[in-house]
């Protein structure tokens, strides 16, 4: 059996830090060092087999200081999940929930109910490390998905191919990969029978499978004939010879930006095929050398945001995260299409500026400025010490030497501009604020 | 009495992102008035900004090749042709913009909404049955000067009546749900540059879909005066140094690391754009752009953006394709007369000022402006002083190089389609093909799906 | 706007409206009403009485507003003003126990289906 290589290099704080960004939302202060002390196996184990959920830190609030109402208030859905990302002790569970949200991308623009979106989100969380077959079955019968991809409109008298097509194209096989248009139509027939009722004022309720709407006839799918139903339709996709490859490559792509080698892929497929278990595949990916020695990945906007808040030990206390998330290109529960977010296109001049605003907002609680009475907070006067203090604010993230030199050079030059006495008093404050901002927007911090 | 809290998503977003852009932060408490210079803060800042740019531009760590790249982009595109796309959001009513006053069918279909000419009304010279909407007098004047091409029945067969879908078709330049790049974006992917985000400029808080590219950089700014990087507790020379350092970080090598390169490129392009737009920051609405003409007053972003656009062109910035949204809500299911009047008034007056601005600055022969909407409205009015979604609608092409003629006539009101909508007398893909081949320059076949199946039309001189 | 100031005002309003008991001020009940052509969907069909925040979200392509009135003689009609497509507006109000009618007052939207009912429960007895 092909085996998957395991990283054998040094597993220190920088490696643990990268792991926490890829498999979570970055380290809290000191967390990378603690994780590194466990060694690679211990660290991955802690992530994939985490303790019972505990949310630590201040409870989330909106801009008006009110508690969150994720099902009943605009934007609170985003804040509610972002809060979990920030306060959780199970970061990979949240990250996998985000992976499934992208994999089975459902947008509330087509669902129109934050409650149903949250219901789906809890389902994703339950299946974070579980079994992909169970997950696929749960997704297929999920109310938000049934609305989003027209499952409730797919009846034996008027089949709707929307879900059938995406089931293969986006969820299990890949576009045009081992199926025909006829397979799409036949899958659609197999998937008929889900329904709901429309109640005035309540919207869609009572989602269920109704055998009387199901096409019980014989279908021919992937050249096999049978009286397939919806579970069989899912299982046929899972047992399709090209599914395992699709699955491991897609899962891999969330954690490592370069495709796996043929032998690594074959090894991962072998692990996966034993029973569609996600956890062992995930563990193999997280221990793979490519994760630690390969190129970096741009942090998705919510990961960047949650990570900053974790590092700064700041809870959710403003609705600005909703707008800023949208500006940076990632509003939770509103992926741009059923294909999810495009990880290659997070950054342009507008989203970079939105990220600037995100860091500016995140750092607003620690901005140094004179008090109303004119009293200045104590900060170092010397460039090197100021810069050191700025790194400390952000939990000492790893930044390449050349970026460090550029940032240090800035601090030195900016301080040396101070001529008058008031400037010499004032500029260290400004330089500290500016240095923190530069670190957060440095390519090193944007990609981990 | 409870208080109300409201926002519109786009407005909220604009607010959040542009918080920075909305003027400079207040003077920090305790800070002596700018160093006893006697300057107010704004002047203080813009003066030091100029200084910082001079220092920065001359500093040694800027790789020469990149600087040359920008310069060559400016040289290549600095006097090239520019296409400006202006979108009327909601499906504007073509039968009000140019109305067939005496047509009995029009009066029958629109018992309450049919418009009648007044003594001040202008007749449409190319088809005397038609009259201009009173607010469109500025466009009538431009048409009389031969600078406005009118397409009174543009669309496509079997028009989709969803705003989103029909707009998507127009944005991508095809009746194709799955295309993810805009028609101008694909033009730039094919003919644009790797180093010039300004070649595709969305004057908005987010990218206008028509400009979405796959390969080449494009930019989105609320206004040329609004692309800044406000930072709490940072100002003056420290701020300038910080932004220079952002550019410096964007120039570091990333050794083939694609993720790092993406992040580096974003910093570089943002800084590049920030510098390109430096002349426009810290200025007040319109007047600060050195506009030789007066734009409509008020706090609408549209005239401000157009004024900024003309100023950017005058400054020689390398723009090729620009897109923005006109003011107004054109989805007039109810209260059509008032809603239409408000939107059209400001749109027409602003476009007129823009055209005059370009002429005064000697730029008019370089710029063509396309005005479009996702569909027209149903000829038969509904029961609430409004009209519902239709099919064929109105488009204009404005500029000294526009043919200034009518292209395709007003659709026949006695031959409506099966939904009771206007049948198109011109196709938007014909228009796009013509603009690509005859204006921007390039092979339309490489940009538009099935381009050759749409004939070119005489919208250009 | 100063977020803390707003929060303080809201808290004062709620305390003033509540009984003088020393219990910590309760979070207001929350209800989201999603408007579309031509439906209203409520995020819940029952809320408890007392201070509430009702939010109107417009997922449609047309303008919509919201009126709420308890089914009782002389009951006050609360309104959430017109929200444009893609927009959101919220309103703080006090709900008394009973059944409320909700509808859109624009054009003929109510007749087209933009109406719903909401049950308001009295607070649980202590």
Helix-strand blueprint:
The complex is a heterotrimer of chains A (448), B (461) and C (126).
Chain A lengths: L12 H10 L8 H7 L1 H10 L27 H12 L3 H13 L4 H4 L2 H13 L5 H9 L2 H6 L13 H11 L8 H10 L3 E6 L3 E7 L9 E3 L2 E3 L3 H10 L3 H11 L8 H12 L4 H9 L2 H5 L7 H12 L7 H9 L20 H14 L20 H11 L7 H16 L4 H21 L1 H4 L2
Antiparallel strand pairs in A: 1-2, 3-4
Helix pairs in contact in A: 1-2, 4-17, 5-7, 8-12, 10-11, 13-14, 14-15, 17-19, 18-19, 20-21, 20-22, 21-22
Chain B lengths: L3 E5 H10 L22 H18 L5 H14 L4 E7 L5 H4 E3 L3 H6 L20 E3 L4 H8 L3 E8 L7 H10 L10 H9 L8 E4 L15 E3 L14 H14 L8 H19 L24 H14 L6 E5 L10 H25 L6 E7 L3 E5 L5 E3 L3 E6 L27 E2 H13 L21
Parallel strand pairs in B: 2-8, 2-9, 5-13, 6-7, 6-8
Antiparallel strand pairs in B: 3-4, 5-12, 9-12, 10-11
Helix pairs in contact in B: 2-9, 6-12, 9-10, 11-12
Chain C lengths: L2 H15 L11 E8 L2 E4 L3 E3 L1 E9 L5 E7 L6 E7 L3 E9 L2 E6 L5 H4 L2 E7 L5
Parallel strand pairs in C: 1-4, 3-9
Antiparallel strand pairs in C: 1-2, 4-7, 5-6, 5-8, 8-9
How would you describe what is shown here?
The complex is a heterotrimer of chains A (448), B (461) and C (126). Chain A is mostly helical. Chain A has helices at residues 13-22, 31-37, 39-48, 76-87, 91-103, 108-111, 114-126, 132-140, 143-148, 162-172, 181-190, 230-239, 243-253, 262-273, 278-286, 289-293, 301-312, 320-328, 349-362, 383-393, 401-416, 421-441, 443-446; strands at 194-199, 203-209, 219-221, 224-226. In chain A, the strands form two sheets. Chain A has a two-stranded antiparallel sheet. In chain A, strands 3-4 form a two-stranded antiparallel sheet. Chain B folds into two domains: 11-21 and 31-60 and 228-276, no CATH class; 81-225 and 286-453, 3-Layer(aba) Sandwich (Alkaline Phosphatase, subunit A), CATH 3.40.720. Chain B is 36% helix and 13% strand. Chain B has 13 helices and 13 strands. Chain B has helices at 9-18, 41-58, 64-77, 94-97, 104-109, 137-144, 163-172, 183-191, 236-249, 258-276, 301-314, 336-360, 428-440, and strands at 4-8, 82-88, 98-100, 130-132, 148-155, 200-203, 219-221, 321-325, 367-373, 377-381, 387-389, 393-398, 426-427. In chain B, a hairpin with a 5-residue loop joins strand 10 and strand 11 (387-389). Chain B starts with a strand and ends in a 21-residue tail after the last helix. Residues 1-70 of chain B have low confidence and may be disordered. The longest helix of chain C is centred in the first third of the chain and has 15 residues, at 3-17. Chain C is of the alpha+beta class. The relative contact order of chain C is 0.22. Chains in contact: A-B, A-C, B-C. At the B-C interface, strand 1 of B face strand 6 and strand 7 of C.
